[in-house]
Design brief:
With 161 residues, this protein is α+β, with helices and mostly antiparallel strands. It has a single domain (9-160), classed as Collagenase (Catalytic Domain) (3-Layer(aba) Sandwich). It contains 6 helices and 3 strands; from the N terminus they run αβββααααα. It has helices spanning 14-21, 91-108, 116-119, 126-138, 142-147, 153-160, and strands at residues 56-59, 71-76, 80-84. Helix 2 (91-108) packs across helix 4 (126-138). The model has no long low-confidence stretch (mean pLDDT 85).
Length: 161
């Protein structure tokens, strides 16, 4: 349900929030002609070749056998990190990929030299979430929109303002 005149914001439910956070209105700006996996080339700007990064395993292709819930699994830090997602189409896929990549890179670049209690038995995901939201928010930055998605200044303004 979406608010109509006379409705109260408290009538919204979690499904409304999920829909709104999916930024479906931005789908028209998402270049379907660029395969999702090719957006990973963005990280080469930072000298990171994520497609061939040791310890990082990517399963980001669509499959009817997979859940639509994306996640990163740190099976053995930093040697065995899995990023799994099942693209559904549209803008939310790009944000999801970058969010989960934040988690995955956080674990992949954790030092092997740390003790198990420091790297394997962490009690907070705060650091990983910081990287996840940083990368997710990059997808809405004007330089990313221009260089990675090849959007026009007018399209960028429509998204960012």
């Amino acid at each position: 349900s979406f608010l109509t005149p006379g409705e109260d914001v408290f009538e919204l439910n979690r499904f409304d929030a999920i829909y709104l956070l999916g930024l479906g209105e931005l789908d028209r700006f998402f270049p379907e002609k660029i395969p999702l996996v090719d957006h990973l080339d963005f990280f080469s700007n930072w000298g990171i070749g994520v497609k061939k990064l040791a310890g990082l395993h990517l399963d980001i292709d669509y499959s009817p056998q997979k859940s639509s819930q994306a996640m990163s699994f740190a099976l053995r830090i930093p040697q065995n990190i899995h990023l799994v997602m099942n693209p559904q189409g549209g803008w939310v896929d790009l944000e999801t990929l970058f969010h989960e990549m934040g988690h995955a890179l956080s674990h992949t670049f954790t030092s092997r030299e740390l003790s198990p209690s420091e790297k394997d038995f962490f009690t907070s995901n705060a650091l990983s979430e910081t990287y996840a939201f940083l990368l997710q928010n990059i997808t809405l930055s004007p330089p990313f929109l221009e260089r990675q998605l090849k959007l026009s200044p007018r399209e960028i303004e429509a998204i960012t303002f």
